[in-house]
Amino acid sequence: MTVIHVIRSYGPVTIDDIARLSFLSRRECEKAIEELRLAGEPIVAGNDGLRLVEDPDLLEKYVQARRRRMLSEWKGTQSLKRTLRAMREAQDERMGLTLGLVS
Question: What is the largest CA-CA distance in the chain?
Fold first, then answer.
């Protein structure tokens, strides 16, 4: 059974259930779902699983929620990058002290 067929037939359905019914790994299912979205399938996720929607208002709400999550992820990534730089600088400074390069 294909991923889209499982979603159409059983939605809302979890990714784990899709994987089981389509004989794919979870990672393969996630990839297939994104490919289906890129192809224009209105697949949305909720607490109860994935489903297709026909209501543009529901799809709009889902798109807005994904955008908020994406922005949150980006902000967290930027913060982690700053923390990484600070950690590398501290590590370099400690290495310099250890090697006697810094007075």
Answer: 70
Instruction: Judge whether 93 and 84 are in contact, CB under 8 Å.
Output: no
By residue range, what is the domain housing residue 79? 55-103
Same domain membership, residue 63 and residue 100: yes
CATH of the domain at 15: 1.10.10.10
Q: Is the pLDDT of residue 62 over 70?
A: yes
Closest-CA residue to 1 (of 32, 27, 34):
32
Quick one: average pLDDT of 80-89?
96
In angstroms, rounded to a whole number, what is the distance separating the alpha carbons of residues 4 and 19?
11
Which pair of structure tokens corresponds to residue 30? 């996630």
Q: Which pLDDT tens digit goes with each residue over 6-30?
A: 999 998 999 999 999 999 999 999 9
Average pLDDT, the chain: 93
Which residues make Cβ contacts (< 8 Å) with residue 56, sequence separation at least 6?
none
Which segments of the chain are extended strands (E)?
Answer: 43-46, 49-52
